[in-house]
Amino acid sequence: MIITLTPFPSIEYIYSVEEFEPQKLLTSKNVSLSILSKGIYSAQMMKVLQEEPILISSFGGFAGKSIKHYLDKSKIKSDVVWTDYETPHQVKIMLTNQDKNYTLRSEEPFTLDSELTRITYKLNSHIKKVSTLVLSGKIPVKQNSDIFSEWIKIAKKHNVKTIVSTGQKEVWDSLMVEKPYALFLTEEQLKALSFETIDLTELIKSLISYLGNGLHFICVYLKNRGALVLSKNIYCHVQSSLDLINLNNTAASGAFLGALATGISRKYEQEKIGKWCLAAALSADDNVSRRICSRKDVEHHYKKTKIIKIEL
């Protein structure tokens, strides 16, 4: 069993309209809802790959109930802290005839100390049942940026491997002291952490300096440029002959994270982990009106991947 802990997920409503004018009733021919959380999608991908995840999170209001319904529909076990705060959400209006969009986002709650304390309690109650812990999601401003490191310490006490995905500098600095078992990064997270992402050789050189002292893997999802799976002695560039259809697909990075956790939990070799992760990312769909993908989708994409080992 794998715990995926994502403290404060959010959702996004997307409306496509032909024009955007004030004081006018707009009609959208295409409305979709997506969950802006790698943690939620990672749990879904674990389920697709026949793992049994349990999701720990904090939900509130109508948006929170929507996520809980989505998890229940996907038959994903969850242990939720229900809060008086509304789960963060945003509305995106996309103009179909122009390359423009407008986004309205709800304000973050000022303090969530009580929710974090209750999440920690739930983690302690489940940690003895699992082999792997996945931590992802943004820690709101003015909250405890060391909380991921505290959760890693809890996992280490029970010999549980922790995989972390974050693009927050203050959280990253704390992680580098505590060292999780594996790190997962997207291009957006790398940019937020001030890593250069254009030259892959330079990126690899920058990242491998963090390996060791308990940190075994660093994985990077590069969308249509493939993925990097780095260990202390082997640097793999995973590529596919198939392209990602939706480059802004939140589910893709979450699916990658779920496949990574599954591979580490099952002790797959590095090359197999890389191929499964990229295949999962390319298979994923982030529209909650449809299931994320099937195992056959992942197996199809897996056959289209290849590993290139990089020598520095």
Describe the structure.
The chain has helices at about 40-50, 60-75, 115-125, 145-155, 170-180, 185-190, 200-210, 250-265, 270-285, 295-300, and strands at about 1-5, 10-15, 30-35, 55-60, 75-80, 90-95, 100-105, 130-135, 160-165, 180-185, 215-220, 225-230, 235-240, 305-310. The chain has about 300 residues and is α/β, with parallel strands linked by helices. β8 (about 130-135), α4 and β9 form a beta-alpha-beta unit. α4 (about 145-155) runs parallel beside α5 (about 170-180) and α8 runs antiparallel to α9 (about 270-285). The radius of gyration is 19 Å and the shape is globular.
By DSSP (H or I, 4+ residues per run), the number of helices equals: 10
Helix- and strand-based class?
A: alpha/beta
Number of strands: 14
> How helical, in percent, are the residues?
25-40%
Distance between the termini: 37 Å
- The fraction of residues in strands falls at 25-35%
- Envelope shape: globular
Features of the shown structure:
312 residues; four-stranded mixed sheet; ten-stranded mixed sheet; globular
Helices and strands in order, then pairings?
Blueprint: E1 2-5, E2 11-17, E3 30-35, H1 38-48, E4 53-59, H2 61-73, E5 77-82, E6 89-95, E7 100-105, H3 113-126, E8 132-136, H4 147-157, E9 161-165, H5 169-178, E10 182-186, H6 187-192, H7 200-208, E11 217-221, E12 227-230, E13 235-240, H8 250-265, H9 270-283, H10 295-302, E14 305-309
Parallel strand pairs: 1-4, 1-8, 2-6, 4-5, 8-9, 9-10, 10-11
Antiparallel strand pairs: 2-3, 6-7, 11-12, 12-13, 13-14
